[in-house]
Specification:
It is a single chain. With 269 residues, the chain is α/β, with parallel strands linked by helices. The protein has a single domain, classed as Alpha/Beta hydrolase fold, catalytic domain (Rossmann fold), CATH 3.40.50.1820. Helix content is 35%, strand content 18%. It has eight helices and eleven strands. The chain has a seven-stranded mixed sheet, sandwiched between helices. A two-stranded antiparallel sheet has the order 1-8. It has a two-stranded antiparallel ribbon with strand order 7-9. α7 links the parallel β10 and β11. The chain starts with 20 loop residues before the first strand and ends with a helix.
Length: 269
């Protein structure tokens, strides 16, 4: 009579550490790829890393531009670290990256995804010599009701983080970032939104803006808020019909990158 061997599910070792990042194998650190005298500074979104902007950065670098991207404080480490940072730290890091790039390039254009777009707007309001702004799904307002936002603010005093929606697995896209949304950081984002809204009237640079029809993270009226607030004479807007929030990684990436390159080249014609 043969013995029946049972194979129980392996239990987690006490030494096993759950990796806080989605796609931890991707490269997500800060970088600067030097090339021409025109510099492009790209800023990733909240909870993400520079892996989010690398495909777009490669397109610009292949076209002869110097490209820099900053890993924002608290990112690429752990959600706990991110929850201890503030919008002021993110702003300071972006300003430092901009001034470093300015040493290498005579002309600079800034761009950002989601919260990174807000940080790009902040830079443009502070440094009028910036030649242009590229905004990808700018997070001027969240796609949530006022009641849900109020509940989130209250919950931030008691709850560390909330898991991201199952639909936010990025569908195999080369996105890297945290699996949860730390709530204190979400409150910092709300404060950043309010501050940027007050700064819009200080912005005169040409603007390229992308929004996605399938975006469930950002209020789709965010673009209107920017258009109504800035002083820019040139505003180019594009709606991506088949893309979600991370428009610079989604299925219409080639179109987004092509339009972005044309925008930059047009500025310097």
């Amino acid at each position: 009579m043969s013995k029946k061997i049972l194979h129980p599910e392996p239990s987690k070792s006490k030494n096993t550490v759950d990796v806080p990042l989605v796609n931890p194998e991707l490269e997500g650190s800060s970088f600067c790829w030097e090339s021409g005298e025109v510099g492009i500074l790209l800023i990733h979104g909240l909870t993400a890393t520079t892996a989010e902007v690398r495909p777009l950065a490669k397109c610009f670098h292949d076209a002869g531009f110097t490209v820099s991207a900053i890993l924002l404080p608290g990112h690429g480490t752990s959600p706990e670290n991110l929850n201890q940072t503030s919008r002021k730290e993110w702003i300071a890091a972006c300003e430092k990256a901009y001034l470093e790039l300015k040493k290498k390039c005579s002309n600079i254009i800034v761009g950002g995804e989601s919260a990174g777009a807000l940080l790009a707007l902040h830079l443009a309001s502070e440094y009028p010599e910036i030649k242009g702004i590229m905004l990808y799904a700018p997070a001027m307002r969240l796609a949530s009701s006022r009641l849900r936002i109020l509940l989130m603010i209250v919950a931030s005093f008691f709850i560390f983080a909330v898991p991201k929606k199952s639909g936010e697995d990025r569908g195999g896209m080369p996105w890297q970032g945290y699996k949860v949304n730390p709530l204190k950081v979400a409150v910092q984002l709300l404060k950043l939104q309010a501050e940027i809204k007050k700064r819009l009237s200080r912005i005169y640079q040409p603007i390229l803006l992308f929004q996605a029809n399938l975006d469930e993270t950002v209020d789709l009226k965010s673009g209107e808020m920017i258009f109504e607030g800035v002083q820019s004479a040139v505003i180019e807007s594009h709606w991506m019909e088949k893309s979600g929030h991370v428009v610079i990684l989604d299925r219409e990436f080639e179109e987004v990158s092509e339009i972005s390159l044309k925008f930059v080249k047009k500025i310097f014609q």
